[in-house]
TrEMBL record:
The name this protein goes by in its record: UspA domain-containing protein
Protein family according to the UniProt entry: Belongs to the universal stress protein A family.
Domain UspA: 10-146, 156-307
Pfam families the record matches: Usp (PF00582)
Length: 307
């Protein structure tokens, strides 16, 4: 994927949890900016459907469970509409597991939006199963939402982590569109450590053939980090002309520390943190299995994982 919004619906996973309803509200707000349609999806397969579906169903019959699932989904959509956002919402219940249903439904989607935590019996699956599988296998950007709805209007910046990899450049381009839609600053962060990495490939700004571990001090590493950040900005944003991302204020920042900790701390003042699904690895890596996993789990704001 090129990280740029083009077609189709915003798919939202619904499981009757508070975070899922926050995800639906986030998606509705985004749809209000883009004119897109929401596709709210509730999985009702055995072992995956919300407990409330069983609680309100008069029997375990297939028809009764389907009607109960539809009612739970409709109630969630109705509550989200109380925010006054006039957006088009299509409601779908799917007889499948949550992860299978959401990955499949997102195949033709613009993005997939999920809550950070589901209901109690599903919480053990957070990141380790449903969210992680969506972030790793969905062919579109996946946004993980937690906590109550943000203030409106929200003038906090969109934050994106870059490490010079193609994945982080795709995230940068996608983040620029989001900042443009929201008319807020785009904050571009590169995290760096004051010690040489074990893998010289994490220093893309240098000639690896001339790499000399003993010659590297903090000043040299900071210079490499600055060059990586500047190069990412040049490659990721130069020549952008799409209408969805008009002129936006771009703030380029170096963050001292590991990628995960640095981005989580920087996200304290952001409304959305964007990372690439795959990075370079090492100190600058944004690999979902490590840094991505940590920011999805611990960042205080919504997190988007972009391919």
């Amino acid at each position: 994927m090129n990280g740029v919004e083009t077609t189709s619906d915003i798919v939202v996973g619904i499981d009757a949890s508070a975070d899922a309803e926050s995800a639906l509200r986030w998606a509705c707000a985004h749809a209000g900016l883009t004119g897109r349609r929401i596709r709210a999806v509730l999985a009702r397969g055995p072992g995956g459907r919300p407990r409330v579906v069983d609680d309100i169903s008069p029997s375990v019959g297939v028809d009764d469970l389907e009607r109960a699932a539809s009612q739970v989904l409709h109630d969630a959509v109705r509550r989200a509409r109380l925010d006054g956002l006039a957006v088009d919402v299509v409601e779908r219940t799917v007889y499948d597991s949550p992860s299978d249903a959401l990955v499949e439904e997102s195949q033709d989607a613009l993005m997939l939006v999920v809550g950070a935590r589901g209901l109690a019996r599903m919480r053990r699956m957070f990141v380790g199963s449903v969210t992680a599988r969506c972030a790793q296998e969905a062919a579109v950007p996946v946004v993980v939402v937690r906590g109550p709805a943000p203030p409106r209007p929200d003038d906090r910046p969109v934050l994106v982590g870059v490490d010079g990899s193609e994945g982080s450049l795709a995230a940068l381009r996608w983040a620029a569109v989001q900042a443009g839609l929201r008319r807020v600053p785009l904050r571009v962060a590169h995290c760096w450590l004051s010690e040489p990495p074990l893998d010289p490939a994490c220093l893309p700004a240098f000639d690896l053939a001339a790499f000399d571990l003993a010659a590297f001090d903090e000043a040299v590493l900071e210079k490499a980090a600055r060059l990586t950040l500047d190069t990412a900005l040049e490659r990721g944003l130069a020549g952008r002309t799409d209408a969805a991302a008009p002129d936006i204020a771009v703030e380029a920042v170096l963050v001292a520390g590991s990628a995960a900790h640095g981005l989580i701390m920087a996200a304290q003042s952001a409304q959305l943190l964007v990372v690439g699904a795959r990075g370079r690895g090492g100190f600058g890596g944004l690999l979902l299995g490590s840094v991505g996993h940590q920011v999805v789990t611990h960042a205080p704001c919504a997190v988007a994982v972009v391919r």
